[in-house]
Design a protein that fits this description.
By secondary structure, this protein is an alpha/beta fold. About 40% of the residues lie in helices and about 20% in strands. The protein has helices spanning about 5-10, 15-35, 45-50, 50-65, 75-90, 95-110, 115-145, 235-245, 280-290, 315-320, 350-355, 370-380; strands at about 155-165, 170-175, 190-195, 205-210, 220-225, 250-255, 270-275, 300-305, 325-335, 345, 360-365, 390. Strands 4-3-6-1-2-5 form a six-stranded antiparallel β-sheet. Helix 9 links the parallel strand 7 and strand 8. Helix 1 (about 5-10) crosses helix 7, helix 2 (about 15-35) crosses helix 6 (about 95-110) and helix 5 (about 75-90) packs across helix 7 (about 115-145).
Length: about 400
């Protein structure tokens, strides 16, 4: 436990972190990778390059400082981060490395303002925070390993099927090479794929949402090929999966993880909204709802650039025909090509959303950040309370 003086010092740094947080975390990652380049085998290089990871860490450090005397209030955030850490293989021995370089970054950025008192207080606070993460993650590792069909670390899976879903999205059906059982999961969770493409110095890990309902003898991930756009290079892992991985090839995978999951305890209507490849957790949730013993009415809305980018359209259309009494589905195309039909052209807006949904529903959504911000704003304008709004970021947490 931290004493009152240490807590006071930490809280006094909150305004500084609000201003200099991202500068500190960018410096931290530069120092840590320079001192420990082996950690580049774990961290997402693209998120580093685009500034997403430093921004997410800055927000986490800020939240920890602001709640240092009541860390239990940010336990849900801690558990979400810990889920990703377990999926990536973050271990207790990594935490001292992070702590050492984080404190060094604070000193470097703040200079003389980083007094011995402040650095000592942050060292104590980091120790407490790290212990919380290590404890939570230890339970998660144990749970992942001891569940039926579970395992620790990474396990080899064979690509049983590779199915092109659109011009840019492909599904991979994965079965364990050892022929054993696989762990179940909650709709909305993801698995983590570890690859080392030819010519790459480090291994690369990516989280991919499971795009089928649990209970199958396989895992299905549905991956968008991230092509080079402007200054952003092509996605290393997605390009590798699309172009190099074929049926019969092996991928290394960690057990399912994630805290964005379908709440199946309720009976009110449910609205699922997805943009682009954000459909992956939504399809898992949709299949689960339709195959379960619930009678909840479901509205599924998917937005895509055009028909050639619309993945799983035939599958959703078939589900709608099979469950027409409970499921209504709509698709919105930003710029439909000639001859392509859709339920709405352009973007999802408030009047249209209001016309096809019910405000008493639970709302789940996932997609690109601009899509999510627009949907979140529209849902709130419908008067939907926070506890019925659920969403998932692909990559480090951001703000809506």
């Amino acid at each position: 436990m931290l004493d009152a003086k240490t807590i006071e010092v930490i809280k006094s740094t909150v305004p500084v972190l609000e201003v200099h947080g991202q500068t500190i975390t960018k410096q931290f990652y530069q120092m840590m990778f320079r001192n420990h380049p082996e950690l580049l085998n774990i961290f997402n290089h693209a998120n580093q390059r685009q500034g997403k990871q430093p921004a997410a860490l800055a927000n986490a450090v800020y939240a920890a400082a602001a709640h240092i005397d009541r860390l239990e209030e940010i336990l849900p955030v801690v558990k979400g981060i810990a889920q990703k850490h377990r999926a990536l293989g973050i271990l207790p021995e990594h935490y001292p490395i992070v702590g050492e370089n984080l404190l060094a970054a604070i000193k470097t950025v703040l200079g003389e303002a980083a007094t011995d008192e402040i650095i000592d207080a942050w060292a104590q606070a980091y120790g407490v925070i790290a212990d919380v993460f290590i404890s939570v993650e230890a339970e998660m590792y144990q749970e992942a390993e001891q569940q039926k069909g579970g395992w620790r670390g990474f396990r080899r899976f064979k690509v049983e099927r590779k199915v092109k879903e659109s011009d840019v999205i492909t599904s991979f059906y994965l079965k364990p090479e050892d022929g054993g059982e696989i762990a179940s999961y909650k709709p909305g969770q993801y698995i983590t794929v570890r690859v080392k493409p030819a010519g790459q110095e480090f291994t690369h890990l990516r989280h991919y949402s499971l795009s089928a309902a649990p209970g199958r003898p396989y895992y299905r991930i549905t991956v968008k090929r991230e092509d080079a756009i402007n200054d952003n290079p092509a996605g290393v892992v997605s390009s590798y999966l699309h172009r190099e991985i074929d049926e019969g090839d092996i991928l290394e995978i960690s057990a399912p993880a994630g805290d964005f999951t379908l709440d199946q305890s309720k009976q009110n209507p449910i609205v699922l909204l997805s943009g682009g490849v954000g459909l992956t957790p939504m399809v898992s949730m949709l299949e689960t709802l339709l195959e379960g013993d619930t009678n909840r009415d479901v509205v599924y809305i998917h937005a895509a650039r055009c028909g050639s980018h619309h993945a799983m359209k035939e599958h959703i259309d078939q589900l709608t025909r099979d469950h027409g009494g409970r499921l209504r589905s709509y698709h919105v195309y930003e710029s439909p090509a000639a001859g392509e039909s859709c339920d709405k052209t352009g973007f999802i807006d408030l009047p249209w959303l209001k016309s096809v949904t019910l405000p008493e529903a639970e709302f789940y959504f996932c997609g690109p950040l601009p899509f999510m911000r627009a949907i979140n704003g529209a849902i709130k304008e419908l008067g939907v309370p926070e506890d019925r709004i659920h969403f998932e970021f692909f990559g480090p947490a951001d703000s809506l």
